[in-house]
């Protein structure tokens, strides 16, 4: 389909006024019909999409909302889609990842302070049943994005497999910050979703909670090492364009997301602790 210059220009203006790079606005969120506001929420597949489908099916209508859930498997896309106005909110990321996106991409995005859940990272292996079995020079799959790479390294450091250099913030640490590596571990960097698919190709891999769930892995039953939820900074947060956080529909969205029934749903759906409520 061809657009005339005028139509194209109008489309560009609409995109910019709704985009996070220019700031959001209280009247630019969702679509309203017969008193119901439809909001499009971008999520990861599991557990994020599962949580938001529960919210849509059980809580949204009473709040005057209808939620359209759009699932993503690539972490680089949901913030861009939100900024570009394709989404009204997203829910797929923890705060350190969002902070890195705001800093590196310049996104003007707002996160609600109280998160919904935490997915503990874990070290998995198809070749070994205990970390003591890891041989000298073992290959370890690890996230290639900065926010999650530091998280994976912290799990290994907390369990004595490596030591990070003095003064390094674990949240921003990279494999170049490893100061002590007694087992001479060889780190194989990969995109998060690839780590579960290529688990057989490594001695072990640190895998994000949602990707482990998609692969049928349980951190409690299959993890050689599991991240502690205590004091965990990696709670997943609801994110909107900066300026949209005061919008009435967005306020309602955040409120129903923290309903007691959502906490119960998380606990009952993932009783083995693969997903833990953060509120």
UniProtKB/TrEMBL annotation:
Top-level taxon in the UniProt lineage: Bacteria
InterPro entries (alphabetical): Lipoprotein_NlpA (IPR004872)
Subcellular location, principal: membrane
Membrane topology: Lipid-anchor
Keywords: Lipoprotein, Membrane, Palmitate, Signal
Signal peptide bounds: 1-15
PROSITE patterns documented for this protein: PROKAR_LIPOPROTEIN
Record's subcellular location: Membrane
Similarity remark: Belongs to the nlpA lipoprotein family.
Name of this chain's protein: Lipoprotein
Species per Swiss-Prot/TrEMBL record: Brevibacterium pityocampae
């Amino acid at each position: 389909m061809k657009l005339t210059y005028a139509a194209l220009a109008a489309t560009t203006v609409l995109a910019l006024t709704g985009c996070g790079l220019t700031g959001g606005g209280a009247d630019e969120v969702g679509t309203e019909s017969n008193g119901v506001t439809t909001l499009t929420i971008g999520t990861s597949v599991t557990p994020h999409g599962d949580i938001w489908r529960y919210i849509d099916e059980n809580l949204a209508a009473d709040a005057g909302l209808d939620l359209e859930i759009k699932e993503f498997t690539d972490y680089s896309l949901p913030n861009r889609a939100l900024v570009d106005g394709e989404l009204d909110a997203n829910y797929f990321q923890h705060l350190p990842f969002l902070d890195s996106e705001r800093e590196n991409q310049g996104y003007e995005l707002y996160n609600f302070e109280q998160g919904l859940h935490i997915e503990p990272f874990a070290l998995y292996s198809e070749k070994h049943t205990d970390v003591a079995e890891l041989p000298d020079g073992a290959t370890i799959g690890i996230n290639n994005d900065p926010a999650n790479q530091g998280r994976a390294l912290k799990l290994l450091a907390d369990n004595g497999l490596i030591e990070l250099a003095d003064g390094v913030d674990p949240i921003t640490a990279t494999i170049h910050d490893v100061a002590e590596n007694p087992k001479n571990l060889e780190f194989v960097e990969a995109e998060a979703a690839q780590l579960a698919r290529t688990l057989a190709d490594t001695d072990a891999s640190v895998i994000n909670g949602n990707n482990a769930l998609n692969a049928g892995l349980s951190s409690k039953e299959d993890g050689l090492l599991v991240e502690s939820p205590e004091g965990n900074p990696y709670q997943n947060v609801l994110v909107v364009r900066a300026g949209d956080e005061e919008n009435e529909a967005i306020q309602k969205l955040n409120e129903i997301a923290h309903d007691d029934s959502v906490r119960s749903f998380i606990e009952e759906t993932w009783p083995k602790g693969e997903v833990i409520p953060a509120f």
